[in-house]
Structure formats: C-alpha cells, structure tokens
Amino acid sequence: MVDDNPGAGHVEAKWIEFDEGAARPRNKMHVTLSFDGNILMNRFTFEAMGSPANVVMLFDPVNRRIGIRPAAADARNSFELRQRGPRTTRRVRAQPFVKKWNIIPDRTIKFRDPEIDNGILILDLNPEAVIHPKPLGGRRRSQQPPSAQPRNTQKI
Question: What is the pTM of this model?
Fold first, then answer.
C-alpha cells in the first residue's frame, strides 16, 4: 500500500547535531574494576605506564587507593598485564589482591580521575572518586546466590 500523503502524522524533523564526540575519548585514561576482581585499562593508560608486560599491585589503606606499578616479568609478586582479545584493552586479573584487601564492589566501577605519579598508576577507591555505572543486564554481586557472595567484605 502506498501512502498518498507521506507527511501525514509526522511533524517536520528538527535535527540537532551532537557535538560532544565519543563517550570515551581515546586520549584519556580509562580504568575500571569489576566485581570479580579484574582491572581493565585502555591503551592510553597502558602506554602512559610505559607498556609494561607485568605489574605489581600496591594498596594504601589509609587513603583507600590502589597503586599499579610496572614490574619485571620474573618478580615473584607480579601480575601479567594481558591483552583482552583483539582489543587494545589490557587486563590485570587481581582477584588475590582485591580479596586480601576486601575490595569488593557490587558492580563494575570506573575510576573518575586515575593518575600516574612517580610511575605508579593511582586508583582512588573513595566514594567521590569512583563512578558506579548502571548495570547493563549483567549479574551484579548482590544478585548472585548467597553461597557465591563473599563474606566480611566492604562495599565500595
């Protein structure tokens, strides 16, 4: 069926161009911590750290900050910084670290202002320094069965 009056029922479009660019600029540090202990960083952050193959994890309990410092591959306490699939994202599987320090977010968090100071990537865990994005349909820790939830943990 052909519409004899194509403009009927439609208001003339008034398009407004979105001029703010992409949601995640590639020339800015972007770091997240997932509820299962994976720390993800974009290529810009990885390169700003000197593109290390391994890192050591640091924790400042007084200021509630995570530190990530490049390390030699043979350092006994180093974590491999793995490329995540064909993407440029790098991942640290930091489950033992977050478990030791009871850093268990109920969902993935984004660090508002990660910075590098004296070669250490600093990630602030204080509530005003993290962003809790809305879940996209994945299971948050609080939605898992009680047997799968860790005990005696601090919520972020």
Answer: 0.71
